[in-house]
Amino acid sequence: NIVQSVSPLLESREVVKVFHDCREDASILLHQHQVSLAAVFDTQVAHSLWLERKNFDTYQASLAEVLRTFLVGTYRKHRWDELESREMVPARWVERPLQPQ
User: Fold this and answer.
1) How far is CA 93 from CA 61, 89, 96, 97, 99, in A?
2) Could you report the per-residue pLDDT of 24-58, keeping only the tens digit for each?
3) What is the distance between the terminal CA atoms of the chain, rounded to a whole angstrom?
């Protein structure tokens, strides 16, 4: 089981894990695999705190928006703009494995 093999890393307080909106990931790991995440840096939470410090209204930003705000070079390098401009087809979400476009 892959989760059990990485659980020491996920539960370690000495290794920071970076997630974007880890709420559901943390819930699944805890309730289905009895793994408690520790030492997590959540980029969505960090973005909300940044907005709050700037006296802006807070909201849940996408990973693409966080990259666009703080790491525009990375955003462009990995072509997030192309990904964001693609039409979303919810019916495709159940397809597995996904085919490259």
Assistant:
1) 21, 7, 8, 10, 11
2) 999 999 999 999 999 999 999 999 999 999 999 99
3) 30
